[in-house]
Write a structure and sequence with these properties.
The protein has 14 helices and ten strands. The protein is α/β, with parallel strands linked by helices. It folds into two domains: 228 residues, TIM Barrel, CATH 3.20.20.70; 65 residues, no CATH class. It comes from Flexistipes sinusarabici (strain ATCC 49648 / DSM 4947 / MAS 10). It holds the Pfam family NMO.
């Protein structure tokens, strides 16, 4: 079960994908995930120019020659992004795996697939998964309500969303949201997924660029220590329960406008938190699976642990009593 269409198509050893996380999914993290047998993904928009993305991809290639992916997130912004220039870099650097997220990527599909790339689109609902297949995506990464970041507005958990998506489309499904160990990988495969996408688990690895103070704080949290913000904006975000999140909740309760909340929502705050370890004055995306995480291993050790645990579980499931 660990060797399937997902692994064969992407050229990876294990069906374990490190999700594209803003400011976190850099060359060192992604390359080490790929070197460990999974798929590492570098987040393009963490870099404020296509040239800087090119430099980061070159850094990754000094660590691994195994498949790498790039995340492109299409979101409305006050400062329009020149996506075509980022795609130029992706093509120039011969990246064959693209993780798209946010808005419909249809207008960019032909350019990406013209370079023989495989496209993984992140979705938060079955209807979006159906649309992703229709426009030509090769895989769907389906985000359950447990996930870090943006879980959508339908509040459907992975236990329901994964098999429903697998029943509704013909392309492989990647399970995302709530996965942090081998039990989760085995469960995802049993639910009809071809692999797992993990963000929060990879944040808490040695190669992650997250400041050590923030890593230690995250390690102290449990599954009830996340909170949903931006619900009033129809842009729900799951983040850790901290001072910044509580301030935003209070503003939403009094029907504050986006303009009023914008300074607290700024991604620059999150970047600063990752760099300095200040875990109170920024929205820090974190999934409910934080309650399952109790160590900060190397990427290699973590991937191997997940593989060994899931393999053992799958072997036990094949035992049939007389």
């Amino acid at each position: 079960m660990l060797n399937n269409k997902l692994t064969k198509t992407l050229g990876i050893k294990y069906p374990i994908i490190q999700g594209g996380m803003m400011w976190i999914s850099n060359a060192e993290l992604a390359a080490n995930v790929s070197e460990a047998g999974g798929l590492g993904i570098i987040t393009a928009l963490s870099f404020d120019s296509p040239e800087k993305l090119a430099d980061e991809l070159d850094k990754a290639r000094l660590i691994t020659d195994k498949p790498l992916g790039v995340n492109l997130t299409f979101l409305p912004t006050l400062n329009p992004v020149d996506y075509d220039s980022y795609i130029d870099v992706i093509i120039e650097k011969n990246i064959k795996i693209i993780e798209t997220a946010g808005r419909n990527p249809e207008k960019y599909i032909s350019r990406l697939k013209g370079n023989c790339a495989s496209i993984i689109h992140k979705c938060t609902s079955v209807r979006h998964a159906v649309k992703a297949e229709k426009i030509g995506c090769d895989f769907v990464s389906i985000d359950g309500f447990e996930c870090a970041g943006h879980p959508g507005e339908d509040d459907v958990t992975s236990l329901i969303l994964i098999p429903k998506a697998a029943d509704s489309i013909n392309i492989p499904v990647i399970a995302s949201g709530g996965f942090a160990d081998g039990r989760g990988l085995a469960a995802a495969l049993c639910l009809g997924a071809s692999g797992v996408n993990m963000g929060t688990r990879f944040m808490l690895t040695r190669e992650s660029p997250v400041h050590e103070n923030l890593k230690k704080h995250l390690l102290s949290l449990n599954e009830t220590d996340t909170i949903l913000v931006e619900r009033s904006l129809k842009n729900t975000l799951r983040a850790i329960r901290n001072s910044q999140a509580q301030k935003i909740i209070k503003m939403e309760e009094r029907n504050a406008t986006l303009q009023e909340m914008a300074p607290l929502l700024s991604g620059k705050n999150g970047k600063k938190a990752i760099e300095t370890g200040d875990f109170e004055n920024a929205l820090i995306a974190c999934g409910q699976c934080i309650g399952l995480i109790n160590n900060i291993p190397s990427v290699k050790d973590m991937v191997q642990s997940i593989v060994e645990e899931s393999t053992e579980i799958i072997k036990k499931l094949n035992i049939v009593d007389d």
